[in-house]
Amino acid sequence: MAYPQLNLDLQLCFRLYTASRFVVQCYKPFLDKVGLTYLQYMTMMVLWEKDNILVGDISKRLMLDTNTVTPLLQRMEKEGLITRKKSKQDTRQRIVSLTEKGKALEEQAKEVPLCMSQFLYDNNISQEELLTMVPILDNMIQSLKHKTH
User: Fold this and answer.
1) Beta bridge partners of 85
2) Which pTM value belongs to this model?
C-alpha cells in the first residue's frame, strides 16, 4: 500500500458509517411492529415532540435537506400518518400535522427505545459506554454541521 493513511481500518468515518448502518438495521424489527421505517420513526418523534410545524423545521431538527424530507412526508401523508397544509402566513411553506393515526402510533412506539437499549445491553454494550458516547457524538455533530452548511 503506497499510502498507509488510506487503510480502511484506520478510518473513523468507516466506523461511524458502519455503526450507523448496523444501528438502523437493529431498529428494523422493532419498527416493523409499528409499521415505520427508521427515517419515518425519526420524523414521527419530531412531530410527537411538537405537532403542527413547518417542513423546514422538521428538516432542521433531523439535520436533513428539505429535498430529502419532502418525499418522505409525501409518503407518510399517503399512509395517513400526517397532513401537510399551506401556511397562511407564507403559502410557499407547508405545515405538517399528525393525524389521529399518527398520534395513536406514539403509544405503539413508546417501547422502541427501551427495546433497542436492551438489545444493545444484551450484545455487550453497556449503559456506561452508551452514556460516554453521547456527548462525544453530540460534540462531533455540532462541530461538523457548521462546516457542511
Assistant:
1) 95
2) 0.91
pLDDT digits (tens, 9 = 90+) for 112-137: 999 999 999 999 999 999 999 999 99
Q: Which cell is 47 given?
A: 412531530
Q: List the grid coordinates of 102.
A: 399518527
82-86 sheet: strands from edge to edge: 53-54, 94-98, 82-86
Q: How many CB atoms lie within 10 A of CB 59?
A: 19
Claim to verify: residue 54 and residue 72 sit in the same structural domain: yes
Q: Can you list the pairs that 101-108 forms with residues at least 24 positions away whose Cβ atoms lie under 8 Å? A: 102/44, 102/47, 102/76, 105/34, 105/35, 105/36, 105/44, 105/81, 106/44, 106/48, 108/33, 108/34
Task: Tell me which DSSP letter residue 81 carries.
Answer: S
For 89, the domain range is 34-104
Task: Please name every residue paired with 82 in a beta bridge, in sequence order, or none if there are none.
Answer: 98
CA–CA separation, 52 vs 33, rounded Å?
26
Shared domain for 50 and 70, answered yes or no, is yes
CATH number of the domain where residue 86 is located: 1.10.10.10
